[in-house]
């Protein structure tokens, strides 16, 4: 199925949204909960899978694959049913950057973190990418099951914090925290490597394994994975104060009645 061709504009710096312009009968698919606003004349419809397959069995299979990645069974499709151009906007779920990717520029396939997909032109297929090596599957953390975006149209993924782009040369290796990976091209091979060393393992605080990406290909990296941010929020909300000094911390406890 040929993907719909869409025009877009990204607004904002750290809390971004993307406005997509749809010609008559053009459509875009999005994750549930990412919708921000739209013009009159756009029809919103919830469906199984990603809208790229026909037939009940194909739709159920696609929905099942999405469930394995922890995503919703459903996608939302927005179709311009008017006779004029219309706009629909989608907002990023947390602070970071929206990355526009034209799949036709990357051999029609991108592999991305399972929670990074935001929206795409209708016709883009959203599936799962299992890692081939057993070690990667057991110890890859966030990288165990990745999403794959396939087609020849535009798609948009979201990163946490600042996003860096690196072009790996053939054979070049990049070691990275698994949660910091946003996406990479299909030519990049993915594996894990043990950190090594008793002190690193017990006290390093960085996990037991690195992700190892080998070129050639392009990699998108985020500085603040949502899992890391959530962990810090839970840590500071556990009831233990962590102010700049012990005196301030005790004073704060007294004020709160502790």
Automatic annotation (TrEMBL):
This is TIGR00266 family protein. Pfam families: AIM24. It comes from the Bacteria. InterPro entries: AIM24, AIM24_sf, Trp_RNA-bd_attenuator-like_dom.
């Amino acid at each position: 199925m040929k993907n719909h061709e869409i025009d877009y504009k990204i607004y904002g710096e750290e809390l971004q949204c993307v406005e997509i312009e749809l010609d008559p009968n053009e459509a875009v698919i999005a994750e549930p909960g990412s919708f921000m606003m739209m013009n009159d004349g756009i029809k919103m419809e919830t469906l199984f899978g990603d809208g790229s397959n026909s037939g009940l069995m194909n739709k159920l299979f696609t929905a099942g694959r999405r469930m394995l990645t922890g995503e919703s069974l459903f996608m939302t499709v927005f179709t311009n049913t008017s006779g004029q151009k219309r706009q629909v906007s989608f907002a990023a779920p947390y602070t970071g950057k929206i990355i526009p990717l034209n799949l036709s520029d990357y051999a029609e396939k991108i592999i991305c973190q399972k929670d990074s997909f935001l929206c795409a032109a209708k016709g883009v297929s959203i599936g799962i990418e299992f890692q081939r090596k057993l070690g990667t599957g057991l110890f890859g953390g966030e990288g165990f099951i990745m999403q794959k975006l396939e087609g020849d149209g535009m798609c948009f993924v979201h990163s946490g914090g600042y996003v860096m782009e690196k072009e790996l040369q053939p054979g070049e290796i990049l070691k990275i925290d698994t949660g910091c990976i946003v996406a990479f091209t299909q030519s990049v091979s993915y594996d894990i490597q043990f950190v090594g060393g008793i002190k690193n393992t017990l006290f390093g605080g960085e996990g037991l394994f690195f992700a190892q990406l080998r070129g050639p290909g392009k990699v998108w990296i985020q500085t603040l994975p949502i899992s890391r941010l959530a962990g810090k929020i839970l840590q500071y909300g556990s009831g233990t104060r962590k102010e700049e000094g012990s005196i301030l911390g005790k004073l704060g406890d007294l004020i709160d009645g502790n």
